[in-house]
Design goal:
Chain lengths: 441, 293
């Protein structure tokens, strides 16, 4: 009787074992890549299209791509349980993930041939876009978007009042005086998020100093915030805040202030390229959105044509991914010239893939941004705000709000930032990468 | 049902909720104490650091002390106004004035709105854009009025005072009114015969006989002031600054924005201790001989 039971158990178990073996060897079974995407202003439609096209090219791979505006909360426990999706775009602190060893380096794939091009994948990207997240010589984040910090205006309103696009800071302030005299608020500002002024401030500082000095601040050089040029940049920003911001701007959210701008109650707004996507449902007919770079400051020693910007919407391959190589290959396909062109056309934004925008029929507002970028000599971006959350989440926005409100002098503002960054310097818990100097243009 | 069976029956009903409570409330709370003694970013592994986080929190340059001051401000300033108004309205309504029922409903009404909705409502009242009710009213009075940023961070704490008073007074008024209505009329009649006026009646009869309820109200306000989070979070669009942080918003920012989970949970532990201490101190200070009637 006992032998009978044993035989039955074996009879049932053996096919199962066989099945396990077969499953591993059967190439038709294929693998499933899990891709999690932050579902923000750009949605996930483009990502899904890319996934379907990739599946057609690779019949043995299925891409399970999902999106969620709160993707971070879903990812965190899975990263901790070491069971994350293979690939993800999220707003988690990338540097903390890198240092905790949670991300997979992209370099092997970056040095392999790009999809549909002779060059390597790395060579197809706009130079410098990988610089923000390089750790111990390896790259850990792939930006899918290219952004720039510019000043937006409505061409139609400018024509109506006879205003001229400024090229220097002096022209800019004179324009603001003229706008004010014409009864319009010169500048809308996202005052509830004072960090919006950080990019403008760093742009002003760049106009005043050569890049060697600008990057010293990024490399945590003691006293960098106390440099006279930085104080001068803070002074200009404060003057802008005190004289030209729309009354009440400091209590406005990004959408409120941007609405004020699209409704013509304020003439100018500093913002990134995402502005149109964010406001697409509110832009009135006849509105001619265009942009110009942060104007050059008279007597400044900085590059007048450099532009603050770089990669964004980063995709990350997880270190605990079950299929890191396939995830990398899918990411490489996502960043191919072919997919990047559909990205630009579908989402009305830019891609960090070189020449992706060439020959495409794009919207006039995006063309305006492309013109600004094409005229620029190089792009540069801040890493203090992504590396040192202890600095970026509190002392920096608080200091900017106080500066714009006139509650502190530019000197006090600079001293406050220097003290905050000194606390970062002294904190052994915070990872500080080695100085990077001026990255190649 | 036998006594033993009865106990088993009760235990069977109590066990599931107790288990759930232990799993989802007690266990995380106990864990919070453990995390407060670690350095952990919630992504990698945690390191034991003893009282390091508490030392940092209590350091002079820490953001914790200003946050605590904001809590005290939001506990004391709107608290005093709310209690005074609630007592006043309850007393007036208790005098059975005309339309008392209507006033009771009108004053209690804001209390049925969730605090997040209240905050959103006041965002619109204070807004510096075209939808701002207060700015538009001021513009009606003075057409040259320039928009004022009432809800700007540096003014927000004061801007919160009318909002908290508006949304809180009704609840305390109903609480006090119920206590006042429990006081037998004979006490008032006796006091009147002794020549007591309205104020003396309130001070010598009403107040002492509703002292227990008043104490409860004060403790609610103390706890509410120390725990305040949602209205600030909403009015600051999730980005409070050092001029508006309270202990709870600071804790949340440290944990979920800066990924400093050890530091954030240490704030939570301090918040727990402070609420406990404040409640105990309030009870002790306000304790009086209980009057039975």
């Amino acid at each position: 009787m006992r032998t009978g039971w044993l035989a039955l158990a074996l009879a049932l178990a053996i096919p199962l074992l066989g099945g396990c073996t077969l499953e591993r060897k059967d190439p038709r079974k294929g693998i499933t890549l899990e891709v999690a995407v932050f579902e923000g202003g750009y949605g996930i439609g483009w990502h899904q299209d890319v996934a379907r096209r990739y599946e057609k090219r690779h019949p043995n791979i299925r891409v399970n791509l999902w999106g969620d505006p709160r993707v971070d909360e879903k990812l965190k426990p899975r990263i901790l349980r070491r069971n994350p999706p293979d690939l993800a775009s999220c707003n988690l602190p990338v540097w903390k993930l890198i240092v905790a060893g949670k991300l997979y380096p992209l370099d092997e794939a970056l040095d392999s041939p790009a999809y549909g091009q002779k060059a390597t994948w790395r060579e197809t990207l706009v130079p410098g876009v990988l610089a923000s997240y390089q750790y111990q010589g390896k790259s850990y984040a792939m930006p899918t978007n290219l952004g720039a910090w510019v000043c937006w205006y409505d061409k139609r309103q400018f024509r109506q009042y006879g205003w001229k696009v400024p090229r220097t800071w002096g022209e800019f302030t004179r324009l603001c005086d003229q706008i004010k005299a014409d009864g319009v608020a010169p500048i809308a500002f996202q005052g509830k998020y004072p960090s919006y002024a950080w990019s403008t401030l760093l742009s002003l500082y760049q106009r005043l100093v050569p890049f060697e000095k600008w990057y010293e601040m990024q490399d945590l050089k003691p006293g960098a915030f106390l440099e006279p040029e930085f104080i001068r940049a803070a002074q200009l920003l404060q003057e802008m805040g005190q004289k030209y911001l729309q009354p009440g701007a400091m209590a406005m959210t990004h959408t409120e202030s941007q609405l004020e701008w699209v409704n013509g109650r304020a003439a100018l707004i500093f913002c990134g390229l995402w502005l149109k996507n964010e406001m697409k449902n509110a832009i009135p007919d006849g509105f001619e959105m265009a942009c110009f770079p942060v104007p050059m400051i008279e007597g400044g020693r900085g590059d007048p044509n450099a532009i603050y910007g770089g990669g964004g919407e980063n995709m990350l391959v997880m270190a605990d991914s079950k299929h890191p190589e396939e995830a990398l290959d899918f990411l490489k396909y996502m960043m191919s010239l072919e997919c990047s062109r559909t990205y630009i056309q579908r989402l009305d934004t830019l891609s960090p893939v070189q020449n992706a925008v060439k020959g495409l029929l794009i919207s006039p507002e995006l063309q305006s941004a492309v013109d600004v970028i094409n005229k620029s000599t190089r792009m540069y971006s801040d890493r203090l705000s992504v590396l040192y959350l202890e600095f970026a989440k509190s002392p920096m926005p608080d200091g900017l709000a106080a500066l714009l409100n006139g509650k502190v002098t530019p000197e006090e503002f600079a001293q406050g930032l220097e003290a905050a960054i000194e606390a970062v310097r002294q904190n052994p818990d915070i990872y500080k990468p080695p100085a990077m100097g001026v990255p190649p243009a | 049902m036998k006594r033993k069976e009865q106990k088993t029956f009760i235990a069977a009903f109590l066990l599931p909720p107790l288990l759930l409570y232990a799993l989802f409330v007690l266990w995380p709370a106990v864990n919070a104490f453990r995390y407060s003694l670690t350095r952990w970013d919630g992504l990698g592994s945690a390191t034991w650091v003893g009282l390091y986080n508490f030392r940092n929190i209590l350091a002079r340059s820490s953001e914790f002390m200003p946050a605590l001051e904001h809590n005290v401000f939001l506990m004391v300033v709107p608290g005093i106004i709310t209690l005074s108004l609630a007592l006043f309205f309850a007393y007036v309504i208790h005098q059975r004035i005309r339309g008392a029922r209507l006033f009771r409903i009108a004053f209690f009404f804001p209390n049925i709105i969730s605090s997040v909705a209240v905050a959103l409502l006041w965002v619109l009242i204070y807004s510096a854009s075209d939808v701002g009710l207060l700015n538009n009213l001021l513009r009606l009075i003075n057409p040259k009025h320039e928009m004022i940023a009432f809800a700007e961070s540096s003014r927000l704490l004061w801007a919160l005072v009318p909002m908290i008073v508006w949304s809180g007074t009704g609840f305390y008024m109903v609480l006090f009114l119920a206590a006042m209505e429990n006081i037998p009329d004979s006490f008032y009649e006796a006091a009147r015969l002794d020549g007591a006026g309205s104020f003396a009646l309130f001070r010598k009869v009403t107040l002492p006989l509703m002292w227990d309820v008043l104490t409860t109200g004060i403790i609610f306000l103390v706890i509410g002031g120390l725990k305040i989070f949602d209205v600030i979070w909403v009015m600051e669009n999730g980005r409070p600054t050092t001029t508006t942080h309270t202990m709870a918003t600071l804790m949340y920012s440290k944990v979920f924005e800066e990924y400093n989970i050890g530091y954030g949970t240490a704030i939570a532990v301090l918040l727990f201790i402070l609420v406990l201490l404040a409640t105990m101190v309030s009870f002790r200070l306000l304790r009086r001989e209980r009057l039975e009637y």
